[in-house]
Each structure stands twice: as structure tokens, then as C-alpha cells.
Amino acid sequence: MISVDVRSVTKTWGETLAVDDVSFAVRKGDLVVLLGPSGCGKSTMLRLIAGLEEPAAGSIEIEGRDVRGLTGSARGVAMVFQSYALFPHLDVADNITFGLSVRGIPRQEMARRLDKIAALLGLEALLRRKPAQLSGGQQQRVALGRALIAEAPVCLLDEPLSNLDAQLRQELRREIRALQQRLGITMIYVTHDQTEAMSMADRVILMRAGRIEQNGTPADLYERPATLFTARFVGAAPMSLLDLDDGPSGAVVAGTTGPALFLGSGRGRVLGLRPEDVTVDIANRPGRFHVAVTAVEYLGAEALVTCMIGERPIMARTRGGSAPAVGATVGLVWDASAGHVFDAASGARLAIETGAGPLSTRLHTTANQGSTRA
Amino acid sequence: MPERRRPQLNVHVQGWLLALPAVVLLAAFTHVPAVATVIDSFFSTPHGRRPAAFVGLDQYRTMMADPIFRLALKNNLLYALITVPVSIGLALAMALWVKGSIQGRTALRLAFFTPTILPMVAAANIWLFFYTPDYGLLNQVLRALGFSSVNWLGSPATALPALMALTIWKEAGFFMVFFLAALQQVSPVLYEAARMENASGWLVFRRITWPLVMPTTLFVAINALINAFRVVDQVIAMTGGGPNNATTLLLYYVFQVAFNFWDSAYAAALSTVLLLVLAIVAFLQFFLLDRKIHYR
Ligand SMILES: Nc1ncnc2c1ncn2[C@@H]1O[C@H](COP(=O)(O)OP(=O)(O)O)[C@@H](O)[C@H]1O
Ligand SMILES: [Mg+2]
Predict the structure, then answer these.
(1) Does residue A102 sit in the same domain as residue A213?
(2) Residue among B151, B167, B139, B137 at smallest CA distance from B75
(3) In B, which residues are within 8 Å of A81 by CB distance?
(4) Between A and B, how many residue pairs show a Cβ–Cβ distance under 8 A?
(5) In this structure, which residue's CA is closest to atom 16 in ligand 1?
(6) Ligand 2 centroid to residue B252 C-alpha, Å
(7) CB contact under 8 A, A50 and B196
(8) Other CB atoms within 10 Å distance of the CB of residue B208
(9) Do A209 and A82 share a structural domain?
(10) What ipTM did this prediction achieve?
(11) Distance A69 CA to ligand 1 centre (A)
(12) Among A257, A300, A369, B107, which is least packed by CB within 10 angstroms?
């Protein structure tokens, strides 16, 4: 069942198109992350769903009901603001029950629900404190409690963890996800942090300049990025992007003479490779790229090895203990299916599979594998 | 060891030397006269060759029996009781309005603030014209509406309210600036959080805006209270305390006793009472403000 249905919504601020003809649907009980760089319209989209802004065009349905003209609780929507927006003069209990008191819920019922939420979020000991007497993480929990107590079917969160330190962020991320699954509420979660998005979401909607760049599961975005933008944005270590050129027997990395990567033209195309798909091979066998290591980033269990192919850096992931030394010459190899080919001009993914092994055995092109976006 | 102590002493001496000009000025023009006034209030007024004699609490006994003093005190309390809340309420209302309206916001702010820039005597002159019997602005309006003209400053029933109106008009614009600053301190996202709950305008004011501007309200209230007991300009400029002492306020009475009746000792006793009132208000300020701002 669809919980939130956004249909061709547009929002302008004067000349700026903050949200440009965006459509998506959120299934009931899902956690959907709106991901994208700063200024791409995530917050605006969220505020449109909350009813804090009205769209210039398009419509929004929540729980099967057109919610035009309604705001917040009247839409069945609660929100956690980036800066928490706690009332500084009210204590934790009054902050959490503010919405209930506005609606004139009886005291007893209010106390019952407060107890439940406080227990859920571990706030029992803090109920009589003022927000200024709480740590950032505790304030965040209170804001969450205020959103959850209404038991609205949809909860919106705008970068709720961005003011917290890394450790706490990770902790609360898990907590929010667990809570969301336990309560079965629909969550729309805005962040610019791809790690956060990938680790929490049922679906990720990547936005760019007011439009949806890609809408899919975290695995979709990671394994089959539809555009160069997605490829760059998603992934903890960036995808290596190599410009291609035409070679005598197929596409080659620009600035090199081979080996050929796939049959056909390489000019105007870009090859993308995830570091974990590139294997560093110390042995000097043929059919590999022979390159010098320019940098090694040691991360403990693993290391990121940077080499230069032509003028472009390429990263490979190795085990931490077996990383080559800087300056060493190594061979690089990757699986035929691991490469992503994009059109350099449009950024769209092309349905070409590629590999860097002996051409005869490892390379094959596929004409119609998966979907291609224009 | 003594060598180590000396520089520290020097620092203290230096500090006091640096503060000395300010201390001297403050003492010479504030503290010494205040103490002298209190002392003078226990003596009689010197006349010609008869020097001041110690009379104990005689001046205060006279005061208790003085009907004009009691009237002045009553007038002043009434004056404070009405001008303080009304000017604050008006100031807050104007601040809320000016903050809300986008168009002509600057013009509105300026318009509301203009009375503050005017010297009190100039403002009093303008209002004198409003209040003038027969051809004053107010009476012209009244007559146009078919009422008979009122001698605003000439009749005991309307003279004090007429002065209050001027004070409110003048103070509200000034206090508005404080409220405007306070309202701008309130994060707009708090109002969005309230909007998410569909809280009504009145509820938002009562539960969010009012408590959050409370420190400012108290600050403004204390200052308005102090001002209310320091009023003298408009009384001198507009009514001279009349008719029949209906607009005699404490400070004006002090002024009259001191410079019209030349009874400086009695004026000193009156001043002492006034000082006491102001001191109480000032203590109130420390006490209340400290308690109300602690959540910040
Ligand atoms: N209230 C506003 N007035 C004018 N422009 C706005 C307003 N809110 C957002 N914008 C503009 O809309 C675009 C999207 O903003 P926003 O939704 O806040 O981005 P994000 O949350 O993804 O960082 C930006 O270009 C921003 O400058
Ligand atoms: Mg934002």
C-alpha cells in the first residue's frame, strides 16, 4: 500500500526551481531517504510533504487522501527538524506533549502516551529538564519523541543527525531504523550523507538540482548507478572514472594504447570502477594494466591503493596487510561485469559490459542488459 | 617572597587608579548628593541667618499629614499602574504587527519609533495642540461627531488620563524596539514546529511567544515603572500640576517644594521617599530578571 504519493510536484522560489516536476511513491512502513548535495531541494521536498509549503504545481496524497491545504498533523504527518526546534522554555515532557495539548487530549491519556514514548527513547530520567540542559543526542531523542507521540502514520526527518558527532550519529542511525521498523511507521528521511542513506534506507531517492536522479534500493544505486552523478555520489570510496578513447581493437583508457576494454568506440565514454572490483596483482602477467602506485590509504582491515592510468587516478581495494608500497609497479585487473560505462556528455549509463582481461575470453558486450536511462 | 607580592599590590593600586575618575564622578554627582539628601531630610530648612537644625523625623510626619503629598503619591501610582501595562501591551502588539507585515515594514518601524526621537517637551507641545479647548484637534473631531468640546487638560477628571495618553504614545514606540529585537531572537523554526501541530495564533502567542519574550517584558516593565516615577517634563510643560493638583506627581511635587516654595529640607524628605520607591523597583528588577532568564 502506498503511504505517500508525490505527483509531478514543482516548487519555485522566485527564479529558482527548488523542486522540479518530482514524482515518487513511498510504500507504507518503508524508510525512504531523500539524498543529495546541499541545495538540491531535499528540505523543500520534505516541507512540501509536511504542508509547510504549498506546491506551485502537482499534488500530494497521504494515506490515499489529497492533502492540499492541510498542514502537519492534519495530514497525518509529523516532523523532526534539523535544529530540533525544541521549545527552550518548556521541559522535556511539555515539549513532547506539546502537540497533544494543542489538540486538547485529556491529561491522563497524555501522561500514558508520554510514559510510553519516554520508555521507548530512554528519556524517563530527563522529563523535567529544559532543552538547554540536554546533550545534542538527548535533544535529538526529545525531538524524535515529539514527532512519534502523535502516532502519525508518516514521520519526516530533515537531516536529524547532522549536528551530532560521528559516533553518536552511527548509534542513533541504528536506533532510528530499529524504532521505525518496530513501530511500522513510514519515514521520509533527508540527508546529504550517502553512508547514512545506504545503511538505513529501504529505498533511496537521489536528487540533483530539484529533480530525481535515481530512485531505487541502496543496492540498485550502488551496483547499477543510472548516471555518472549517482556513480560519483554513492559509495564511501569514490568510484574511479576513466575517460575512454578509440583504440586499434576496441575502447581503451584515454592516454594509453591498451589493452582494449570492449569492442566498439570509446571516445566520449567514461568507464567507472569501484575500488573493490579492481584487483592488484603483483605478478607481471600480460593483459593487465601495468601502473605505478602513487598513494596508499591504510584503513586497517583494508587499504585503498591509488594508481595512475594515463592521467586519471584509479583506486583499488586490497587487504590492509598486503598493500603494495608507494612507487611499486603493479598489475591491475577487474572482472568483465564490474565496469560501468557512461556517456560522458549526458552522464547516462550505457548498456555495455566491460573487462580488462585477455579480450578473447573475458570481454563481451551485451546489447540489452538492464535498463538504460537517457 | 616579598618581591613576589609587590607586583600584585601594584596591580590592585593600578586598577583602582584606572577606576578613580569614574568613581570620583559617580560619587560626586550621584552617591554624595543622594546621601546628603537623606541627611538633609532630618534637618529643618535654613532661613536667612537661622541655620538648619536637627528635627529628626519631623519632615516625614509633616509628609504623612500633607494631603498634596498623598494625592501626588496616589496620582503617581495610578499613573504607573495604567501607563506601564498599556504601553507594554501596545509595544508588543506593534512589534508583532511590524514583524509580521513584510511590506512597508521599515516605514512602519520608523513611524512607530518617531515619538521616541522627539524630546518630551516637543512632544508635549504637539499634544497641547491636540488637547486645546475648542479648536484643538481632539475637540474638532469631537464636534464634527456632534459631541460638545472637552477641556482635556483643564478638568480634574481628564487631565491625568490626558498626560497618560501622551506617555503611552511616547513610550510604546521605544519599547517596541526592544520587543522587536526579542521577537527576532525567537527561532522561526519554533513557529514551524507549532504549525505542524496546527496550533492557533492565540495559542502560539500564549505558549511560545509570550514566555519567550518574558525577559524583555520584565526588563521593559521595570524601566517603564522607573520612568513613571521620574515623570516631570510633561507636567511642567502641559499642566503645571493642575487643575487642583490633579496632575501633581511625586517628582513634580519635589520640584515645586524645592524651587517654588524653597523648602529644601521638605523636598529632601520627599526625594528620599522617591529614592526609596526607585530602589525597591530596582531591586525588583535584579530579583525578577535573574529568575526569569535562567533557562537561556
Ligand atoms: N525560503 C526560501 N526562499 C528562497 N529560496 C529558497 C528557500 N528555501 C530554499 N530555497 C532554495 O531552494 C533550493 C533548495 O533548497 P533546499 O530544499 O533547502 O535544499 P537542501 O535541503 O537539499 O539543501 C536552494 O537553491 C535554496 O536556495
Ligand atoms: Mg536542507
Answers:
(1) yes
(2) B167
(3) 189, 192-193
(4) 56
(5) A41
(6) 60
(7) yes
(8) 21
(9) yes
(10) 0.82
(11) 21
(12) A300
CA distance A125 to B197: 26
CA atoms within 13 Å, Cβ hemisphere of A106: 3
Alpha carbons A154 and A180: distance in angstroms, whole number:
10
Last-in-domain residue among A197, A225, A253: A225
Q: How many residues does chain A have?
A: 374
Judge whether A83 is closer than 8 Å to chain B, CB to CB. Answer: yes
Number of compact structural domains in chain B = 1
Q: Give the structural domain span for B280.
A: 68-292
Q: Is the CB of A44 under 6 A from ligand 1?
A: yes
Q: Does residue B154 fall inside a structural domain? A: yes
For residue A97, which residues of chain B lie inside 8 Å, CB to CB? none
pLDDT tens-digit series, residues B198-233: 999 999 999 999 999 988 898 898 889 888 988 888
- End-to-end, the C-alpha distance of chain B in Å comes to 45
Residues 6+ apart with CB under 8 A from A160: A80, A82, A140, A143, A144, A172, A176, A189
Task: Classify residue B170 by burial, with Cβ atoms within 10 Å: 0-12, 13-18, 19+.
Answer: buried
pLDDT in tens, A218-264: 999 999 999 999 999 999 888 999 888 888 878 888 877 767 777 77
Count structural domains, chain A.
2
> What CA–CA distance (Å, rounded) separates B252 from A320?
88
Q: How many helices (H) does chain B have, and how many strands (E)?
A: 14, 0
B68-102 CB burial, b ≥16 within 10 A, e <16? ebebbbebbeebbebbbebbbebbbebbbebbeee
Partner-chain residue, chosen from B193, B198, B295, that has the shortest CB–CB distance to A81: B193
Q: Whose CA is nearest to atom 14 of ligand 1?
A: A41
Separation between Cα atoms, residue B245 and residue A308, nearest integer Å: 97
CA pair distance A244, A251, nearest whole angstrom: 6
> pTM of the prediction?
0.81
Report chain B residues whose CB lies below 8 A from the CB of A77.
Answer: 196
- CA distances to A9, A152, A219, A273, B21 from A36, in Å: 17, 26, 17, 21, 62
